[in-house]
């Protein structure tokens, strides 16, 4: 049981652009060449988002690079991919998105110890420009505090 999740890609930009309200794990419906490309870490989540459509959730604009050895059976890099969730989870997401104006954003793609591809999606609220400046200021302050503590521990 010592194995853990292996993160393939992370959307660090999402934490900067959005205030994360709630996170959830979803399975990914992929083709064989997409799984092979994922295992090589060739995925980009920067412009990706999820959408509830017709009682199903889809991941849009996630770029999974074509797998070189797949020849003519290769996949479209930015196709819509179905996310696998329970009905109550889909209903919950749809309600929150519709009522509160939240956005579904993928935070990371990873493999479980059993080898299943999963995506961590978040209900997120878009940050305003001043919120982003405040986040940057807080991050800089934390960095300065850490630097001061390190210098103090060295005795300098």
Describe this structure in words.
- With 156 residues, the protein is of the alpha+beta class.
- The protein has one domain (6-127): Small Protein B, Chain: A, CATH 2.40.280.
- It has helices at residues 12-17, 32-39, 87-100, 129-154, and strands spanning 6-10, 18-28, 43-44, 49-53, 56-60, 63-64, 81-84, 103-111, 117-126.
- A 7-stranded antiparallel sheet has the order 1-8-9-2-7-5-4. The protein has a two-stranded antiparallel sheet with strand order 3-6.
- The radius of gyration is 19 Å and the shape is globular.
How are helices and strands ordered from N to C?
EHEHEEEEEHEEH
- Give the domain tally: 1
Gap from first CA to last CA: 44 Å
Number of strand elements = 9
What share of residues are in beta strands?
Answer: 25-35%
- Shape estimate: globular
- Report the radius of gyration as a whole number of Å: 19 Å
Q: Strands, helices and their partners?
A:
Blueprint: E1 6-10, H1 12-17, E2 18-28, H2 32-39, E3 43-44, E4 49-53, E5 56-60, E6 63-64, E7 81-84, H3 87-100, E8 103-111, E9 117-126, H4 129-154
Antiparallel strand pairs: 1-8, 2-7, 2-9, 3-6, 4-5, 5-7, 8-9
């Amino acid at each position: 049981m010592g194995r853990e999740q292996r993160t393939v890609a992370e959307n660090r930009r999402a934490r900067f652009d959005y205030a994360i309200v709630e996170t959830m794990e979803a399975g990914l419906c992929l083709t064989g060449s997409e799984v092979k490309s994922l295992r090589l870490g060739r995925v980009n989540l920067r412009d990706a988002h999820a959408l509830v459509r017709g009682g199903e959730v889809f991941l849009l604009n996630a770029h999974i690079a074509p797998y070189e050895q797949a020849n003519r059976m290769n996949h479209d890099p930015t196709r819509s991919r179905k996310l696998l969730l329970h009905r109550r989870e889909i209903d919950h997401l749809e309600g929150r998105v519709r009522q509160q104006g939240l956005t579904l954003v993928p935070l990371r793609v990873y493999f479980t110890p059993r080898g299943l591809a999963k995506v961590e999606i978040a209900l997120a609220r878009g940050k305003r420009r001043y919120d982003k400046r405040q986040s940057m200021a807080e991050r800089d302050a934390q960095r300065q505090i850490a630097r001061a503590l390190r210098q103090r521990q060295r005795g300098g």
